[in-house]
Write a structure and sequence with these properties.
The protein has about 550 residues and is an alpha/beta fold. The protein has helices at about 5-20, 60-75, 80-85, 90-95, 105-125, 180-195, 205-220, 235-250, 270-280, 295-305, 325-335, 355-360, 385-390, 425-440, 440-460, 490-495, 510-515, 530-550, and strands at about 40-50, 50-60, 170, 230-235, 260, 285, 310-315, 340-345, 360-365, 375-380, 400, 405-410, 465-470, 480-485, 500, 505, 520-525. The radius of gyration is 26 Å and the shape is globular. Bound molecules: 4'-deoxy-4'-aminopyridoxal-5'-phosphate (PMP).
Length: about 550
């Protein structure tokens, strides 16, 4: 088509191409088969032929029929994996589609591509049920550091508070503390190398750019992303979710589509979807939790349907500590062609996140909860999805070229990193990852559970103390509780007087608190650097509080 000189000739050719499409069965022109997000009506079905997929599609608009014909030709008679890997964007570039297909039609075209990929993913999920998909040979490095030797790496943990009490920091789910290695790396970056990145050609710029890109690579390796291009730096979990809701949501959702959320989500994984729903007319459906603080999987499965476009779910609840069965969730969601965003803000601190094993489409987290700096976070996105997404913020760094007429976007991940990045913060993520890897995820979670179990047994027998969360094997080191008859704010205040820092309030999870019949609660969250002695201080301070109310 690139040989054709004018846009008119190309449109004419597309219309002719559309006429070559095999006839489409009128009975298959159903809502389920309709490709949403297209300006005109487009229907698409698939069938299996010797483990390959064959597509049949049509449109009511002659030119779009031509585009449909290109897609059907490109994707048919391929295995699901070949479809997922097919370089469709290169084909679009070769055909110079951008030169005569309007932006609206382009969005529709991407919606068609996305439907095809969803079908391929769903077919693959059925052919390889949970756990069977071979990802790559992902092996974490052998841990080199023992938990017992880590406390002195965190200078703040030896702090004495103004009232003379030594600090007992049990607010780790809100934010972790940082080891000296993270602060040293950041100081060094400012003192020795600092420059802007991806722009100038001088020595400092090269050093800083290299350090930032090495950090991106270490994050990719840490979560087993296929490539560092799939790692977008953002300012944190909240920013990452908003980015997806804007860039992916605005492009691919429309009125009547469904967004599936769970009752245990943090507000950061609720409000951006509510905003998206009010922009597009999409509908939010809620999956409840069970009385034993797990996700209700039966309700989840029942809530999925052909209109489900995205499932946005936390890997670990910040209130209950519940670890959700993400792989099961992605399998079920992919089966109906939905995309899954995993909020890993509370999962990443334990170091055991593997995007390929989870089969996550998007996964988001913050640096500050995993020993890293504030102001930096990550959006992992499957390459195919990121490439289909338009930029959200415009500005420097995210463009390929700009003219007075318009701009073309940079490739991924820079397309989503407009403006000067949180450079030194991104560099500080690498030593945080290195530290977590040196300890290893098993040891981290084991120590948290040991501490949490001791605290849980210590306080749950006290009169009027109620705790919330599943059994220890299904959770992280988060202990949420209330003391009947004592206001949660007061409990936190009394603990603070003893130097014990916990979180109080709704923990940005008001729907969950509503479900639990609570206005507020107290949350003690343990991390690997906490000690048995600290837990015992906490238990004895709780004894005093409970005794004083009697
Ligand atoms: N999701 C969950 C589960 C969280 O625990 C948090 C932080 N409390 C967030 C999202 C938001 O993270 P941030 O404030 O770093 O953007």
């Amino acid at each position: 088509m690139a040989d054709l000189e004018t846009a008119e000739e190309r449109v004419g050719y597309l219309i002719e191409l559309g006429d070559t499409l095999a006839p489409f069965d009128d009975a298959a022109k159903t809502e389920v088969n309709r490709v949403l997000g297209c300006q005109s009506m487009v229907w698409l079905t698939s069938s299996n032929f010797h483990e390959q997929l064959v597509f049949s599609a049509t449109s009511d608009a002659p030119m779009v029929k031509g585009l449909v014909a290109i897609l059907v030709g490109a994707f048919s008679y391929k295995s699901p994996q070949q479809i997922i890997d097919f370089p469709i964007l290169e084909l679009f570039d070769d055909l110079q589609l951008k030169t005569f297909v309007s932006p609206l039609r382009s969005n529709g075209l991407f919606s068609m591509v996305q439907k095809v990929i969803s079908i391929a993913q769903a077919t693959q999920a059925v052919e390889h049920p949970s756990g069977e998909i071979q990802t790559n040979d992902f092996v974490r490095p052998v841990p080199t550091k023992s938990i017992a030797a880590c406390r002195s790496d965190f200078p703040i943990l030896s702090r004495v508070l103004p009232n003379g009490k030594p600090l007992i920091y049990l607010d780790n789910a809100a934010t972790s503390q940082r080891p000296a290695s993270v602060m040293k790396a950041m100081d060094e970056a400012y003192e020795q190398h600092f420059s802007n990145v991806h722009r100038s050609g001088h020595a400092l710029a090269a050093e800083t750019t290299t350090a930032m890109e090495e950090s991106r690579q270490s994050i990719a390796d840490f979560i087993n992303a296929a490539s560092k291009d799939e790692i977008v730096f953002t300012s944190g979990t909240t920013a990452s979710i908003n980015l997806v809701a804007r860039a992916w949501g605005d492009a691919f959702l429309q009125a009547g589509d469904e967004i599936l959320l769970t009752e245990m989500e943090h507000h950061s994984n609720i409000v951006p979807w509510q905003q998206l729903a009010s922009r597009t007319g999409a509908v939010i459906r809620w999956v409840p939790i069970t009385d034993d603080f797990h996700l209700d999987l039966v309700a989840f499965e029942n809530a999925l349907g052909p209109r489900t476009k995205i499932v946005a779910i936390t890997a670990v609840s910040n209130v209950l500590g519940t670890i959700n069965p993400i792989r099961k969730i992605t399998d079920l969601a992919h089966h109906v062609g939905a995309v899954v965003l995993v909020d890993a803000a509370q999962a990443i601190p334990h170091g055991d996140v593997n995007v390929q094993a989870m089969d996550a489409d998007f996964l988001v987290f913050s640096g500050h909860k995993m020993l890293g700096p504030t102001g930096i976070g990550v959006l992992y996105g499957n390459r195919k999805l990121l490439e289909l997404m338009p930029a959200f913020l415009g500005g420097g760094n995210m463009i390929q070229s700009v003219t007075t007429e318009g701009f073309t976007q940079a490739g991924i991940p820079h397309r989503f990193e407009a403006g000067t990045a949180a450079i030194v913060e991104s560099i500080g993520l690498k030593p945080a990852v290195d530290y977590l890897l040196a300890l290893g995820p098993e040891a981290i979670l084991q120590q948290e559970r040991l501490l949490c179990d001791r605290a849980m047994h210590g306080i749950s027998a006290m009169p009027g103390v109620r705790t919330f969360g599943p059994g220890l094997n299904d959770k992280t080191g988060v202990l949420t509780f209330v003391v009947d008859g004592v206001d949660s704010q007061q409990v936190a205040h009394l603990l603070d007087n003893q130097g014990i820092a916990i979180r109080v309030g709704h923990h940005c999870a008001m729907p969950l608190h509503h479900r639990l019949g609570l206005g507020a609660s107290c949350r003690a969250s343990f991390y690997f650097y906490n000690t048995i002695e600290e837990v015992d201080h906490f238990i004895s301070a709780m004894h005093s509080i409970v005794r004083s109310k009697a």
